[in-house]
Design goal:
This protein is α+β, with helices and mostly antiparallel strands. The chain has twelve helices and 13 strands. The chain folds into two domains: 92 residues, Malate/L-lactate/L-sulpholactate dehydrogenase, four-helix barrel (Hypothetical Oxidoreductase Yiak, Chain: A, domain 1), CATH 1.10.1530; 194 residues, Ribosomal Protein S8, Chain: A, domain 1 (2-Layer Sandwich). It is 40% helix and 19% strand. The strands form three sheets. The chain has a seven-stranded mixed sheet with strand order 2-3-4-12-5-7-8, sandwiched between helices. It is globular, with a radius of gyration of 20 Å. The structure holds NADPH dihydro-nicotinamide-adenine-dinucleotide phosphate. The site of NADPH dihydro-nicotinamide-adenine-dinucleotide phosphate has 29 residues, from strand 8 and helix 11. NADPH dihydro-nicotinamide-adenine-dinucleotide phosphate binds next to strand 8 and helix 11.
Length: 337
Amino acid sequence: MGQADVHISFDELRSLLRDIFLRNGTSSMVADSLAANCAGCERDGAISHGIFRIPGYMASLATGWVDGKAKPDVNPVSSSFIRIDARNGFAQPALAAGAQAIKTAVESTGIAIVAIRNSHHFSALWPDVEPFAREGLLALAFVNGLANVVPHGGRTPVYGTNPIAFATPVAGGEPLVVDQATSVMANGEVRLHALANSPLPPGTGIDSAGRPSTDPHAILAGGALNTFGGYKGSSIALMVELMAGALTGGQLSFENDFGDCVGAQTPKAGQLLVIIDPSRGGNARYAQRVSHLCSRLIDAGQDRLPGQRRYATRLNAERFGIPISEDNLVRLKTLAA
Ligand code: NDP
């Protein structure tokens, strides 16, 4: 993506991205949501889901594969279970549309289960869960996607890279946020390796003939990724597929069919979130217990906690600006103009 040689503020980047989304046919509500998400990823150094994704968003919008003006339908079907039909729009505005229903469910029952279907998730999951932890809540998220991952021992892709995220408040500190693909590597990371022509570690995936491959180009051109952690990781991918693609009423990853929408990239699938108020367990010291465990992990020799790299990168960006190559900045300004 070029050398980082200029720095811009989060607000400046968000505003440029907002203009790009608007120019590509989204409503202002959707543009606000996607721009904040994408700029946040770039700021936090989650670059596989930052500005690198803009051409993919544009292609999906241009072909009509995704509806950038979709108005989500929020339907609380019980006191704690909220179904949201994203109406072929993006997942983030659908989640935002459910904010009031989620608040009501958590306040009245201590838990909200949010099942979003008919939606496109093309980003990292931490932006979906971290805000809940900042409000003192636990949040879990499961998302499925495009079939580009083989089940353990398999040769045909069935799963998406099916990420899972978990966020929790920590007494006296930033929320603890875990956000990871259930494939060995996220697809965006493979694409970044392909751009840099750099090989992947052994065990990452297979080529189109089903042979083990460390070549990112071969994995992207008809090959597939492996799930992490052998058969155990494969079963976690299975769980995510069912939670996000079946329980929500969304599509399974292998059911995606771009049809005439050549070049579209956003996976149309589903996402399930579970949001829990920890104070309902009669354990008022929950956040202190998390803090206690985190300290023990570091004492035990773990070099850092999940999310710490992102927070450090965020802090740096807040002080010095978000690093971005001059070429990329010119490209964004042209797209936004
Ligand atoms: P990584 O393997 O880079 O990181 C996974 C998690 O582990 C992060 O929470 C990370 O924290 C943490 N971590 C990394 N290294 C360490 C360490 N040494 N010690 C402790 N914790 C560590 O993520 P992936 O490549 O699996 O996924 C990247 C992104 O891709 C995710 O945001 C995911 O949501 C997204 N994704 C989105 C998909 C979609 O369909 N929308 C599909 C698949 C993935 P930190 O962030 O601080 O590094």
